[in-house]
TrEMBL record:
<feature type="compositionally biased region" description="Polar residues">
    <location>
        <begin position="408"/>
        <end position="417"/>
    </location>
</feature>
<dbReference type="Pfam" id="PF10433">
    <property type="entry name" value="Beta-prop_RSE1_1st"/>
</dbReference>
<dbReference type="InterPro" id="IPR050358">
    <property type="entry name" value="RSE1/DDB1/CFT1"/>
</dbReference>
<protein>
    <recommendedName>
        <fullName>DNA damage-binding protein 1</fullName>
    </recommendedName>
</protein>
<dbReference type="InterPro" id="IPR018846">
    <property type="entry name" value="Beta-prop_RSE1/DDB1/CPSF1_1st"/>
</dbReference>
<dbReference type="GO" id="GO:0003676">
    <property type="term" value="F:nucleic acid binding"/>
</dbReference>
<feature type="compositionally biased region" description="Basic and acidic residues">
    <location>
        <begin position="277"/>
        <end position="301"/>
    </location>
</feature>
<feature type="domain" description="RSE1/DDB1/CPSF1 second beta-propeller">
    <location>
        <begin position="502"/>
        <end position="849"/>
    </location>
</feature>
<feature type="domain" description="RSE1/DDB1/CPSF1 C-terminal">
    <location>
        <begin position="900"/>
        <end position="1217"/>
    </location>
</feature>
<dbReference type="GO" id="GO:0005634">
    <property type="term" value="C:nucleus"/>
</dbReference>
<dbReference type="InterPro" id="IPR058543">
    <property type="entry name" value="Beta-prop_RSE1/DDB1/CPSF1_2nd"/>
</dbReference>
<feature type="region of interest" description="Disordered">
    <location>
        <begin position="399"/>
        <end position="422"/>
    </location>
</feature>
<dbReference type="InterPro" id="IPR015943">
    <property type="entry name" value="WD40/YVTN_repeat-like_dom_sf"/>
</dbReference>
<dbReference type="InterPro" id="IPR036322">
    <property type="entry name" value="WD40_repeat_dom_sf"/>
</dbReference>
<dbReference type="InterPro" id="IPR004871">
    <property type="entry name" value="RSE1/DDB1/CPSF1_C"/>
</dbReference>
<dbReference type="Pfam" id="PF03178">
    <property type="entry name" value="CPSF_A"/>
</dbReference>
<keyword id="KW-0539">Nucleus</keyword>
Amino acid sequence: MKVVNTFHPSSSVLDSLRCHLTGKTDTDYLVVANLNRIHISSVQPDGLRHECRFEVWGRVGAIKAVPSENKQCMTILVLTDHPDPELIFLSYQASQSGGLDLIYTKHLSLLERGARFAEFFNNVLVDPTGRLAVVSPYTGKLKIVLITPEGTYDTDFDVSIAELNLLALEFISSEPDLYTLAIMHIDHLKRLQLLSRDISLDEYQLSPTPSPALPSTPLSAKSFPIGDKPPSLVYIPPFIDDDEDFIGGMLVIGGTKILFYDTSSRESQGNRKQKQRRMDKGKDSTVKELAKAKQKEDEREWRKKKARASVDWPWSEITAWCAVGDELGRSFLIGDKYGRLAMLSIGINEGTTLTLVALGETSSATTLTYLTSQVLYVGSHFGDSQLLRINTTPVQSLESPTLPVPSDINTTTSSSLAAKGKMEESSDRSGGCIINGRGSFLSVIESYKNIAPIIDAALVDVDNSGQHAVVTCSGGQNTGSISIVRNGADFKAMANMEGIVDVTNIWPLRANYYDTVDTHVAVSTFKATHILSFDGRNVASHVNPVSKGFITTSPTLVIANVLGRPKAPGQATNSYVDSSLVVQITSRGIALLEYAVELGEYARVGDIWTPAKLSSTNGPGWENREIVAASANGSQFVLALNSGRIVLLNLDDRNCFDCLNWRDLDGSSNYPTEISAISCVPLNPSKKFSMYIVVSFWSSNHIEILSANAASHFASICKTPVLPSLPRSLLLFNFTRSDIPKQTEYNQYLIVGLGDGSVVSYEFKKEELHGQKIFSVGNVPVTLHPCDVEGRRTVFACGSRTSILFWDKERLHHSPLMLNEVSAVSRLNTTVFDSSVILATSTGLVIGSVKNLDKLYIRSIPLGYDNPRRILHVPSLRAYAVGCISITPTRIDKAEYTSSSMQLFDHTTFARLGQFRCDPNEEITALGVVSVTLERSIGTYICAGTYKYVDEVEPSQGRLLVFDAEDGSLLREKITMAVSLEVRGCVYAVGSVNGMIIAAINSSVVVYRPEIDASTQLLALHKITEWNHNYLVTNLVCRGDKILVGDAINSISFLRMVESQIQCLARDYGSLWPVCVEMLDQSSIIGANSDYNLFTFALQETELRKSLERDGSYYIGDMVNKFIPGALTAHDVSVDMPLEPKQLFFTSTGCIGVIVDMGDELSLHMTALQRNMSTYLSQTKGVTHTKFRAPKNAYGRSDAEATSFGFLDGDFLEKFMQFLNDPGPLKSIMDGQGEAERLTISVDRIHRVLERLQSMH
């Protein structure tokens, strides 16, 4: 069974609003809606502060705030999108702790079987009084929702509306308790019309005739072309200082002009009602009179009503607007789809004027929210969301116009208006004014990273370190970008020391044991030891080894500050005290040194201790013994001698080494004779001694934990099973600082670095080892280094790459460090480099700081108006090939000019290396790489598919392009094209099988063989075969000799390449509408369709035929554009928990997810857990997870698929961990609804499974 987990949540912002959520009216809150989450941030003087976040089980379409008489409790309405629309009432209340609590008060289902979705306007409106909400989910029908004075749900009813093609709705606030809707729609003659209708709450209907509040007014289709975003209506209420003839108006935004219409006065409305009654009376007359009356009615309806004021909109399609928070509400911020932002001001005093002021360029806005003090929030789907400040004077780009304006539109500057004193009177005062000066008035306060929409992606390991990164084609409009996504800790370098290479370990040294500031650093290499001194500045210098007593001619095994044991006069025993002593252990022996603080120098104390000195007290057998491994703490020194002997030493009151115990680990116990590693690091950081000694052995590849108690004679406590490789580094480590062994605070682990580049971890609990987990950090022996990072106790595991182990969220994490070839690490705290780390690399030493241990890093390469659509990593070129579409913005009524190109970027620096420009009206639609054997040599080529737009329903022209991808073929100005082949259709996808190029062209799968043409000696493509049994082949996956075909209109086909022919293995004949497919293995398929479902198929084989059987279906609620086999993070390999990440998927809202394969036995338990959790939450909160994840189609949920199958919701399962400390809900979930639903898996095992699942994303 497959488990669906989220690695990076959707980052596209769909809607936002500002409101007061608590009784504190001085605090504003920003509410931001992503695809399935709502974020709430408080507006603070220094920016936004995140307060809370919650998940919505549905596709959020719009959010609205409901004014309430109860200022302590505000309500937010959330409208979810089709195919299962709901209106959700969310109530926020101040908690006792001062935070915000979320309460679901109502889930109102809007689903209607068989109804047609609203095509243009699918939104919710809230009356300014907060007593009424109107929802438009379906064509020809509105949902009217009545709201109580407290802001909660009261009742609802449906009303029919004659205007089927709604473009916009808006409330007209003309009289109390009178609700009038302004309506913009397209009638049956494709004419745009503006009118209004009254809502009758008594009769539960809209008025059958248009309301006189806003008489029917035709709008020019030329001025308001219908694009992706329909026009908007904004009601402007009257104020005291307005002209006497103004009683309110309606602003129409979204075309080449911004129009402002008057609403009718009460006297005018009365006259119209009388005329209507006379007209209705005339309709009762003869047929001839009736026809005449009808003609007059039509003429009156389409009589041109002149706008009170208008102004040209000189930019592209308007995508977002918001009111500026002034008292009159006469200023609005308007943004177009290319991020051009302008402010519209309405003046209704001594005439009506509309003034448009250009402000600057932002991300392409899907939502605008004015916060306070000239601060604006820009939510974007195509670029980073931004927090902007609108300045009163230009702040950047002072030499350029604020925004580009077509030359045929008149503009002026603010200085020109100031010189005139006021706008000049003209014959048409309602024509408006556009102010466009120089320089941008916008400055970015903060940006919020967004990688939506992800159109294509590649999983790469550029430096072959095993640490993968995802490179995505993201953004759009004016913010196209290539985004690099990777997981790991951040390292900020502060100093470099080159020259010391081949480092094996590093230790900091202090003047005294209890000091916190380091004065020296000892660095051991394969051949020598270096001592570096820090002089209080940012300079480190070598210490003279001759006069300072250190052993520098050989490598050091351990060097550390230790405690002294002086005996006070009159005392029988001595205790450990602070000292300036340092112990250095090498293979030759042990040196004891003392630091003179006044001189800043070390001096050796006594002679070097060697194992041979134990012969006099412990008998023969000590001569010629070599120290092969060692470990030390504040009071103990553990030595591993050759032939399997361990020795435990300490210092006596004369600063001489005293042997506490020793033992040969061989003989009757059948121990291996040689020790590979040893450790005596204390589990309790506050203690200066260890109760355990950890030992590993050569050849047997296992580890033993021994008692350090001298009386026990190194008794065995526990041991590991045989490990897959030789243990080279050991650490029994407590990842918390607690001195009390509490279950939730004391986390002891045995960490093992293996010789094959793997790291093994065991939980050490009650002197037993549990839960073996393995992950890899390369292919060279791993060394372990304890180190403090940001106040946390961590362990650095250094191999081919470096990973940091740390404890967080009740489990052990490992996070890669953004550095390669790190051989050793140590903490460092000097007067200059405080709370830092020092690392050894292949070139020298680096001092820096580690931040954000488990942060997802996103780096964006901005491409501006070049929107990337396809990406391909070409290792032979050390580059990315990116197919781009370049857009030239135009005004709304003008056609946009687009061009396409393939660009090459260096895969490390992302410098642009070259590009190939397509022909006019040609677009790159597919990229692939193929290795071809030509004349006994293997060549690598980039294949690109294109189509040519010639204004037709189905593409009939395209090209298959082949570029040389061998290193050295690049020029700075162009890319070498080897073949250009005209094809009859669009090349939607390309692949490669056995050196042949497979192309999906319209409805066909075509196979080409690259060959050298005998006459020209140039590369040519020869068509081998064609398979044409589809409608529209848009997906093509090639693995080995298998070909997976996705038909966007039908379903999927499984093919095989047999010599020069295509053989169909199996097909699915259902109407699946796939948009993305991928192979899980040679007989399993995963895909996503246009209804936001995931599906899986398995190839079944019988004696008669092969068939595709669907074995999984799951509603994900997002459009998946790409599947990639593999995983982004290194994962643990657990023996008792069969979990393995199989696929990454990428969606149009910026979500990156992980598909994890779970074993059959464990899947049964987790399926039961998901069922019980869904039942419990539906009973307590009224929300049903089962219904949400059930597969859906264009008409909603299907009765045939009432629940998902073959998939589990990993994010939902992980919510189980929040009930671990709540016995009531935990018991309800474990017991289920009866004996048949009782879970047979233990809570502890569920916890461990979910912890491991968390580690994979």
